[in-house]
Structure formats: C-alpha cells, structure tokens
Amino acid sequence: MLNLFQKYRRAAAPSNRDQREQFSTYFFAHEDHAWIGAHPQIQQAFNDLFARLPSALLVNLMRHPLSFVPSQAFQRNGAARYQLGNTIVVFPEYQRLLTRKGLEAVAFLAHEVAMVLYEVETQDDKDPLMAEVEADKFVCDIGLADELEQLLLGMDESSEKRLRLTYLTFKSLGIN
C-alpha cells in the first residue's frame, strides 16, 4: 500500500509558514478557484487543509496543480476544458458541506486530494474501493479520522460505506 503521508513527510522540503502562504496564494489565484475566494467559509476549509498537508506535498501540488471545480461550472464549460486527471468536481452537496463550520469539510477535501494523488502515483489498475480506503488512510494520517467517520455515517448505506467504516474502526483500535 502506498503511504502518501509518509512519502511526503520524509521528503526534504522546508516546513514553514511562508511556504504555506506561497502555496495558498498560488492556489487561490487559479481562475477555476474564484468560486472558493467568493465564500470565506469555503476558503477557510481549504486553508485548514493546507495547514495539515505535508510541506513536500504542497511543493508537489505547485508542480502538478489540482483544480476544484463546481459541478455546475464543469457542465457549463465542458469536460474538454479541464485536465481530467487533476480536476476534482465538487457537487452541490459537497459545496454545502464546505460552507459549514467544522472539519468534516477538510476531511472531504483531503480525501479528494489523496484520491487524485493515488491515481497519479500508482500505475497499476487499483481496485476503486481499495483506492478509497487508501485515501481514507491519508485522511486519518493528517488527523481527521473522526471527521471522516462523520462524513461516512452521513452517506447512504452501501457495502463501500461499511468497508470504509470497518477500516476506520480497525485504524482507531491500532489494527493495521
């Protein structure tokens, strides 16, 4: 299993406030992210995410940027406009989540970032459910296991939800 957190935590990159501010400025300047800056609560969720991500990962995200695009804009502009491997489409229910206070929104964002990174960094055809579980591990590694659990509990019942909750339970019990 690829451990994104350990990979980027070990990489040599300065872990300082200036670097996080530089990344934040870079990220919010992207034209696809204008919708984020228009909503202070949503922008705060992204800032909270950036504060938790390893510095080396932020450096990597400046070389290989991600785009967070509302589903309405994605449909309006057409998929051809976006680099699909690095675009996260944010559907209305998650846009609402991002406007609420609490770290569940940060857990959602971290999970989505990890899903894209796993797709980019693993060349093999990974089982989609295992990719979800690995992204969940990343969310736990940055300290958002409880918030991820709350998100999962709010999802419709499915075997995917049960498996992911089982993983979180094992993780909280120290069983890997």
Give the helix level as a range of percent: 55-70%
Q: SSE order in H/E notation?
A: HHHHHEHEHHHHH
**Number of contiguous helices:** 11
N/C terminus separation: 11 Å
How would you describe the shape? globular
Describe, in short, the structure shown.
The protein has 176 residues and is mainly alpha-helical.
Features:
5% strand, 176 residues, mainly alpha, 2 strands, 66% helix, two-stranded parallel sheet
Chain-wise SSE layout:
Layout lengths: L3 H7 L6 H13 L4 H4 L2 H13 L2 H9 L3 E4 H7 L9 E4 L1 H8 L4 H18 L6 H14 L3 H9 L5 H14 L4
Parallel strand pairs: 1-2
Task: Describe the structure in your own words.
The protein is mainly alpha-helical and 176 residues long. It has a domain at 4-125. Helix content is 66%, strand content 5%. It has eleven helices and two strands; from the N terminus they run αααααβαβααααα. α6 (71-77) links the parallel β1 (67-70) and β2. α4 (40-52) packs across α8 (104-121), α8 packs across α9 and α9 runs parallel beside α11. The protein is globular. The mean pLDDT is 87.
